[in-house]
Design the sequence.
């Protein structure tokens, strides 16, 4: 039960100095006094909470190590003799942006050197360009000069025109390069115009140009520059001495320590290898704000003030943050280990905070939901208060921070509405957005996320209480500050734990896109960046295709029809490693190798020169031309192998993280290439490639099945006929027939090697694991124990079963998990049945904890075609309390109740509301709609139909409890008649006891009374344990629990236990009046 | 030991059919005076109160008070197995696990027996005390059923306004509105056809038609219905059983502002 750390008693008595004298003379309202009572111990002192101790530890360890001065904001000073004549500058660039000076475009890189100096580097001299094919009849010597001046005359911004020998990526051209114009243009606006003119055939130079044409290489300026200079995201750049010019401080535009300019030809870019895999000591600022909202209304910046801002700053690679502070409005008692900055006025606090951000000069700003809430709120609030100096905390002195709305839509991530704030030169990483992208969770609140990843619950103070705490004394504000500081610290810990920065850095390096693209853009840009880089090397140009968004579907992966059932013998699983990439490599599938009948005829190709794919497309073989996608894939996979090999050798934990992130990024990138060719709403869709890939995949699975069944058969002298019981996309499951694991593993290994020889390199079938026992329920639904060694199983593995799905309640998840454990691990089906019966009985008798019944669904858009439970509920909750109602994009939590309506969407209700009003749970819904199907799926293959029915509707379903209604128009007039505890007969009005005379006569009293007492004992015990648990979680055993954390199962348990105790005590009172 | 014999199976059939749509599970409390059921529908808006008096049975004995937890869906399936004119006997032990239903054909020598497993339903026993009503209307039950059925096509709620010389039922919906006005009327030949209004204070109340249409399922139990109304108070709809007993529905009116 314990999820929090135990108290460490040895350090329990370090009291914060400021908290000992509480002699405030402020007038308090009753509700504030009530709160203060909760906050303060009787003698007015307070025991430091767990988290406060943690803060103290940080200060102490900083002192012990004598490391840099703790709580010192500024960056290290630039050495006195610094000048461009003597120093090379090497910095890690974090962010790149384009800017205009007059009509010309330049790029800026922000970065940090290894010493921790901040750098702004202006890159000059690079002119954007694109390609168009040179038309027939155009002779370079004769026409080019005139054509150039024609373009310059008719279009703005043309700098120059050159002719290059290039080749289009689309289709195989017999390796012949043709002439292309390279048109240099000064800025984005003009380049779009000229490109359009070429495409529409408006360029009419001596009637040489066709009426319509294709332009090539359409990509934005920053990426173009980065590609041409071979700069990848987050890579290191060296500016050799004497090549760059330092901008003097009086005309500098930024707050960076070093501001300089360099011509793009002079800078040296380092590929992320060896030494240049390192990371600069980035400063990471994590912050959280608290607002004093009004009751029932979500804080609005026009009215509701910001009262506290907590900040934690750490340097990359250091385990403890070196700045911890809280900016408060009004006084606040001190918190040990962190600084408090008190302000009388809110405006002063905001200005002070702005100065703090600029001085601490964060490279990365993180937080939880900072992108959509905290930062926009601060900006709006500053506007409302008229603090004009506030919105300048970026690195560019004159650029104001502003909020923009953006809608991001991607097939992989769905549609999200976001706010975007430009904080020039500082990267933003909102942990909420990161986690929503990378992980599928039931709930994305900071509470549940930290519970999930850090194994820690945190106290959740409702926003209505925040205002009361703020209006209290400096002690109550201190409690709030601790809470706020913890909220600021948690994102930092999540960042470490999830290695967001490392993994995204490696992803940026591998794919070559700037870091910020990873959060703000989709999958495609990553592939495009890699494609352009490779094409540059091979003199290939990429057509600017209009995405038409056809809904052309092609056949996906194959699934071998499963032979459903429960297997009590080992099942070996053979997997194709990196199936799709290896198919593309083996068969040389690429844009550049694509053929059609005309080109086959035109180039006189014979059947030996090309491959016909199973779905009838043609690709040239690699002896004629090596495809560009296979080359990219090959590099990615080779790099991954290398990274994995390095990872094995590496001992330094930081370098290990980097390498691991790297190999992960490489794997993801390799797999996304296939998806890119199949994305019909993409930059460069080529269904011939993607459908050929899946067609090969299908063929291979079938072939594997046949080969294995053929070879391991009685005909070939094996004692059993092997059977492929299931196969999906890139794996097949084989039943060899042997009972023991070792033989099956050996055979699996052997079969994998044997089948691999039947396919072209580098396609490789691997033996990965054995399932034993194995429960195959349906396509993509199975469970089994996962063995890689014969002596002990690794884990229980389930696919597509309710243990992982999110649209079920936890009850289903828990029951299924337990049942599978009983069946697969203990091999005890009886036990599993008993457990199911007990659970169903508990459910019907209302003994299941509410948190187990909560269902969550993403509230994705306002308008659904049909009415949906969670949407209706969100609507109803908004009417009740707009502040706490779920917003678009949140996951809505609800339970299904009995409401008299048959429609499921009218039966959803907010769990908290249910708890408060003791509404009756629709147990039938949970039994029929939630539990039945998953349980049937598991038990029918094992027990058969009829026994499974018994399991779900047997004698244990005959006792039910209908919980007493407390609301409704009727209930005010109804009186409750007590019934006999045993036989349920209504009792006479003068009988206040627990039993009817008949049952007393029959001597049932003593036994039942004993039961009632022990039940009472049990409930009291349970409640006090839960209460203590919550006190532990909030970090102090001496304060009342304020928390109403909706994501915490203990919260519901505690509330329910509280009610059960109350009810049971009423029954005990009745026993007091019973005479026998 | 409980033993109750109905002269005709049809009575119990009608009773169960009248309530099984609003209440799925309920306790049948059996005492020496007869059988009572008190249950609330899922939405807690409608309370069903049934009394089948001892006189409704041709033979009845109940040695000690017992409670039968019955799943009405299953029970109604069993009761449908008998012919309307059959004798119907229900039998249960003193602490029963199941209840027996026995049908006896009056002409032929055919006896059929069914047993229903009982449920252990832990629910509270609710009662609405007798109270003063502003208005009491007695009218033919079929007349009331027709009004409810007709107006249900228009709207989800039914407004009842009683003034000193008329009763007005009306509904307003998106597609249109409708109303039925009844005046007190006495039919000497067929007293069941009379409309009787006893008025202390005028009332104006609105009810959910969804619930009313559950209530009128009891129409076949009695030729007349008595409706008792008072402001901001649950209305009482009562069907008297000729043989002794009643089926009452208490329905909370709709309030303008949802509490």
Sequence:
């Amino acid at each position: 039960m314990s999820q929090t750390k135990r108290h460490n008693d040895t350090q329990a008595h370090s009291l914060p100095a400021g908290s000992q004298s509480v002699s405030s003379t402020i007038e308090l309202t009753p509700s504030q006094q009530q709160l203060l009572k909760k906050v303060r111990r009787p003698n007015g002192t307070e025991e430091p909470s767990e988290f406060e101790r943690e803060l103290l530890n940080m200060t102490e360890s900083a002192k012990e190590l004598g490391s840099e001065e703790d709580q010192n904001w500024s960056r290290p000073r630039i050495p006195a003799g610094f000048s461009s004549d003597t120093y090379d500058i090497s910095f890690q660039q974090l962010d790149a942006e384009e800017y205009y000076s007059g009509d010309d475009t330049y790029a800026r890189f922000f970065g940090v050197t290894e010493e921790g100096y901040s750098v702004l580097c202006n890159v000059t001299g690079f002119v954007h360009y694109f390609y168009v094919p040179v038309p027939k009849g155009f002779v370079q010597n004769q026409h080019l000069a005139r054509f150039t001046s024609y373009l310059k005359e008719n279009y703005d911004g043309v700098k120059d025109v050159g002719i290059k020998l290039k080749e289009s990526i689309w289709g195989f051209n017999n390796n012949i390069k043709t002439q292309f114009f390279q048109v240099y243009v000064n800025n984005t606006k003009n380049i779009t115009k000229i490109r359009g003119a070429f495409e529409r055939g408006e360029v009419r130079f001596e009637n040489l140009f066709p009426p319509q044409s294709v332009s090539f290489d359409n990509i934005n300026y920053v990426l173009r520059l980065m590609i041409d200079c071979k700069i990848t995201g987050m890579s290191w750049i060296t500016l050799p001495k004497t090549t760059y010019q330092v901008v003097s401080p009086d005309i500098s535009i930024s707050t960076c320590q070093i501001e300089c300019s360099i011509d793009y030809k002079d800078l040296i870019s380092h590929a992320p290898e060896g030494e240049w895999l390192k990371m600069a000591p980035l400063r990471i600022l994590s912050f959280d704000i608290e607002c004093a909202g009004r009751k029932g209304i979500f804080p609005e910046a026009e009215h509701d003030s910001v009262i506290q801002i907590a900040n934690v700053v750490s340097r990359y690679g250091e385990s403890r943050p070196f700045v911890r502070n809280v900016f408060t409005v009004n006084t606040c008692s001190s918190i040990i280990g962190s600084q408090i900055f008190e302000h009388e006025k809110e405006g002063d606090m905001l200005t002070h905070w702005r100065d703090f951000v600029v001085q601490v000069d964060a490279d990365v700003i993180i937080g939880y939901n900072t992108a959509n809430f905290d930062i926009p709120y601060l900006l709006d609030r500053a506007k409302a208060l008229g603090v004009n100096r506030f919105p300048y905390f970026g690195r560019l002195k004159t650029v104001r921070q502003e909020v923009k709305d953006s809608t991001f839509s991607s097939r992989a991530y769905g549609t999200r509405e976001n706010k975007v704030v430009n904080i020039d030169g500082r990267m933003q990483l909102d942990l909420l957005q990161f986690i929503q992208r990378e992980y599928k969770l039931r709930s994305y609140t900071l509470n549940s996320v930290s519970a999930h990843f850090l194994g820690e619950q945190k106290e959740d103070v409702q926003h209505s209480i925040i205002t009361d705490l703020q209006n209290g004394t400096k002690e109550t504000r201190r409690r709030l500050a601790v809470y706020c500081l913890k909220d600021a610290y948690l994102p930092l810990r999540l960042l470490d734990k999830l290695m967001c920065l490392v993994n995204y850095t490696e992803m940026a390096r591998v794919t070559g896109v700037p870091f910020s693209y990873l959060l703000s853009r989709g999958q495609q840009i990553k592939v495009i960046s890699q494609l352009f880089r490779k094409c540059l090397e091979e003199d290939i140009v990429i057509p600017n295709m209009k995405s038409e968004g056809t809904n052309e579907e092609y056949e996906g992966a194959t699934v071998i029809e499963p032979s459903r059932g429960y297997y009590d013998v080992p099942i070996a699983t053979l997997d194709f490693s990196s199936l799709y990439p290896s198919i593309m490599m083996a068969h040389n599938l690429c844009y550049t190798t694509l053929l059609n009948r005309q080109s086959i005829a035109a180039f006189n190709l014979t059947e030996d020169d090309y491959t016909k794919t199973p779905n009838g497309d043609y690709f040239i073989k690699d002896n004629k031309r090596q495809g560009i996608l296979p080359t990219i894939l090959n590099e990615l996979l080779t790099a991954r192998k290398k990274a994995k090999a390095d990872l094995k050798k590496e001992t330094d934990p930081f370098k290990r993280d980097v390498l691991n992130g790297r190999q992960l990024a490489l794997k993801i990138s390799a797999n996304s290439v296939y998806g890119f060719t199949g994305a019909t709403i993409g930059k460069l869709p080529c269904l011939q490639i993607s459908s050929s890939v899946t067609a090969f995949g299908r063929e291979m699975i079938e072939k594997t099945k046949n080969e294995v069944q053929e070879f391991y058969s009685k005909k070939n002298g094996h004692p059993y006929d092997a059977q492929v019981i299931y196969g999906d996309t890139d794996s097949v499951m084989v039943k060899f027939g042997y009972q023991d694991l070792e033989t099956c593993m050996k055979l699996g290994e052997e079969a994998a090697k044997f089948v691999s020889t039947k396919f072209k390199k580098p396609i490789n079938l691997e033996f990965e694991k054995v399932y034993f026992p194995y429960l195959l329920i349906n396509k993509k639904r199975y469970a089994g124990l996962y063995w890689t060694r014969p002596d002990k199983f690794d884990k229980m593995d389930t696919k597509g079963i309710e243990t992982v799905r999110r649209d079920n309640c936890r009850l289903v998840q828990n029951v299924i998990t337990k049942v599978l454990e009983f069946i697969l691990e203990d091999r005890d089906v009886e036990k599993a049945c008993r457990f199911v019966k007990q659970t169903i009985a508990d459910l019907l008798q209302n003994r299941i904890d509410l948190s187990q019944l909560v269902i969550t669904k993403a509230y994705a858009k306002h308008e659904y075609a049909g009415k949906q439970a969670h949407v209706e509920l969100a609507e109803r909750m908004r009417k009740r309390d707009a502040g706490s109602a779920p917003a678009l994009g949140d996951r809505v939590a609800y339970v299904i109740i009995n409401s008299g309506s048959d429609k499921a969407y009218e039966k959803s209700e907010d769990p908290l509301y249910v708890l408060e009003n003791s509404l009756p749970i629709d147990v039938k819904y949970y039994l029929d709609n939630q539990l039945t199907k998953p349980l049937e799926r598991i038990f029918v293959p094992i027990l058969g139909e009829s026994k499974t029915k018994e399991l779900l509707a047997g004698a244990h379903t005959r006792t039910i409890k209908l919980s007493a209604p407390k609301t409704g128009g009727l209930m005010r007039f109804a009186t409750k008649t007590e019934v006999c505890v045993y036989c349920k007969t209504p009792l006479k009005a003068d009988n206040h006891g627990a039993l009817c005379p008949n049952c007393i006569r029959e001597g049932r009293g003593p036994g039942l009374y004993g039961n009632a007492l022990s039940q009472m004992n049990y409930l009291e015990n349970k409640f006090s344990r839960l209460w203590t648990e919550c006190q532990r979680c909030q970090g102090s055993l001496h304060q009342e629990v304020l928390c109403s954390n909706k994501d915490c199962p203990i919260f519901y348990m505690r509330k329910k236990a509280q009610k059960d105790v109350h009810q049971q005590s009423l029954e005990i009172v009745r026993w007091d009046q019973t005479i026998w | 030991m409980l033993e109750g014999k109905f002269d005709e199976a049809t009575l119990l059939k009608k009773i169960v059919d009248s309530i099984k749509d609003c209440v799925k599970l309920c306790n049948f409390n059996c005492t020496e005076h007869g059988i009572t059921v008190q249950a609330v529908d899922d939405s807690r808006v409608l309370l069903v109160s049934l009394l089948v008096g001892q006189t409704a049975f041709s033979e009845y004995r109940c040695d000690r008070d017992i409670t039968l937890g019955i799943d009405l869906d299953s029970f109604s399936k069993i009761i449908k197995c008998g012919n309307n004119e059959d004798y119907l006997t229900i039998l249960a032990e003193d602490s029963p696990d199941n209840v027996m239903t026995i049908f006896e054909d009056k002409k032929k020598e055919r006896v059929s027996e069914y047993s229903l497993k009982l449920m252990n339903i832990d629910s509270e026993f609710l009662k609405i005390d007798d109270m003063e009503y502003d208005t009491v209307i007695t009218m033919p039950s079929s007349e009331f059923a027709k009004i409810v059925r007709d107006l249900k096509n228009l709207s989800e709620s039914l407004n009842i306004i009683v003034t000193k010389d008329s009763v007005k039922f009306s509904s307003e919906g998106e597609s249109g509105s409708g109303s039925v006005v009844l005046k007190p009327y006495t039919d000497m030949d067929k007293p069941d056809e009379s409309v009787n209004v006893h008025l202390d204070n005028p009332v104006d109340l609105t009810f959910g038609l969804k619930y009313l249409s559950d209530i009128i399922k009891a129409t076949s139990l009695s030729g007349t219905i008595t409706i008792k109304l008072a402001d901001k108070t649950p209305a009482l709809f009562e069907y008297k059983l000729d043989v002794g007993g009643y089926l009452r529905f208490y329905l909370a009116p709709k309030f303008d502002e949802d509490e």
